[in-house]
Structures are given as C-alpha cells and as structure tokens.
Amino acid sequence: MDAALDRGWTVAVPDGEGFVAPGPHKFLAARAAGHAVLDIARAVRALPDIDAAGAPVLIWGYADGGRAAIMAAEQQPDCAPRSGCAASRPGR
User: Fold this and answer.
1) Pairing status of strand 85-90 against strand 57-61
2) Which residues form a coiled coil (predicted)?
3) What pTM does this model have?
4) According to the 3-state scheme, what is the secondary structure of 8-64?
C-alpha cells in the first residue's frame, strides 16, 4: 500500500466484519464481498474531492481480501461495467 501511495494513487481499504460480528460469519459470502468491492470502486471514483473519475481501478486483496478481489473481477463485467476496474490481483 505504501508503494501505491508513494506513486500518488488513491487507495481505498475496506474491512470485513471479522469474527466478532453477531450472527453467522460472512467468510463464505463471496458474491457479497465482490459486490462490496465494486461498490467501493464506484464510490471512490465519484468522490468530488478526488480526481479519480477516469482513473483505472486495480483491485488487490490478500487472504479473504484475495477472494473478494477474485469475485469482484468475475462479477465486474455484469454488475459494474463502468466501475473502471482494469485489473485484479489476489495475493497469496
């Protein structure tokens, strides 16, 4: 993340509910995680104080975030074609 910030990129870092949230854990809710990532990409590009409207979006995630990144890339053509997503890089 530091390297991205050093390059002047806009970085949005979502967080999941974790294991302390009430009810069933959302770990296996991959489709919902993918949608949430795409919602974040659209929201960041729409912020008036950030010059990111036409910027490409790279989705990167590690572990649970990697699964969310994969699902976002899979869903993007159908549910968020104008989100600006150019690449997805799940970590290992």
Assistant:
1) parallel
2) none
3) 0.75
4) CCCCCCCCCCCCCCCCCCCCCCHHHHHHHHHHHHHHHHHCCCCCCCCCCEEEEECCH
